[in-house]
Write a structure and sequence with these properties.
Layout: E1 2-11, H1 21-31, H2 35-38, E2 53-58, E3 61-67, H3 69-77, E4 83-86, E5 89-92, E6 95-104, E7 106-107, E8 116-120, H4 129-139, H5 144-165, E9 176-187, E10 190-201, E11 203-204, E12 222-226
Length: about 230
């Protein structure tokens, strides 16, 4: 299967830090009314499905990733951006560059080695309320084998959540080998557990998409490397 991906990058006169991702999201959420830009429904509830428009800072550049219907919206609206306001910073007529790709989604099962390596460019927030308690109680102080099994199950779930979001029926056995370290991150003024590192898989995913929680804000962004 193929999925359409739109990458909109703004080349500014300065490099921004990763924490400007949520400020970029705030700007687009305020400017555009479509649900996929901000995920807030008219009745006040929240769209909890995988975000098809994601906001990131990649190599210091504000970057918007659109997938599937989200890609179509980014393509349709990017010319309407005559200024960029990121909280305390304002950029008039920012230089924006749009790239549109068709990316392959597949599970490669006929190889002995895992074909793809993914590095987390930004911290991965893989723990929800339930597995956070399990992590603290059973996993945090355990051996590497038990940790890998724990993270493997969560990452496979993250991949399936992405697949559902882009209407991809995964036909095949997903394999994941994680190599992760825990860090403390500040999220909404709270200290939380995040993870950095990489994982290997037999699944081909689009470069620069997010996995886990808060992907619309730029967390869990993956950098893809094809090994063989």
């Amino acid at each position: 299967m193929k999925v359409k991906k739109a990458i909109l990058k703004f080349n500014l006169e300065e490099e921004l830090s990763l924490n400007y991702g949520h400020k970029l999201r705030g700007f687009f959420a305020n400017k555009f009314e479509d649900l996929l830009f901000h995920h807030h429904k008219e009745d006040g509830s929240y769209r909890y499905a995988y975000p098809l428009i994601q906001y990131k800072i990649i190599k210091g550049m504000p970057t918007v990733i659109g997938l599937s219907e989200g890609a179509e919206l980014v393509i349709k609206n990017f010319l309407d951006i005559d200024k960029l306001i990121l909280e305390d910073k304002e950029y008039i007529q920012p230089e924006g560059r749009l790239e549109v790709l068709e990316e392959d989604l597949e599970v490669v099962e006929d190889l002995d080695m895992l074909k793809f390596k993914y590095k987390f460019y930004s911290p991965w927030m893989g723990l929800n309320q339930k597995n956070h308690k399990k992590y603290l109680r059973e996993i945090k102080g355990s051996d590497q084998q038990k940790k890998r099994g724990f993270f493997k199950r969560i990452l496979i779930g993250n991949i399936l959540t992405f697949a559902k979001g882009v209407d991809w029926w995964v036909d095949g056995d997903i394999k994941v080998v994680p190599k992760l370290d825990s860090i403390t991150i500040n999220f909404k003024n709270k200290e939380m557990v995040g993870f950095v590192g990489e994982f290997y898989s037999n699944v081909s995913l689009p470069d620069n998409i997010g996995l886990g929680k808060a992907t619309a804000r730029g967390f869990g962004t993956i950098i893809k490397e094809e090994l063989i």
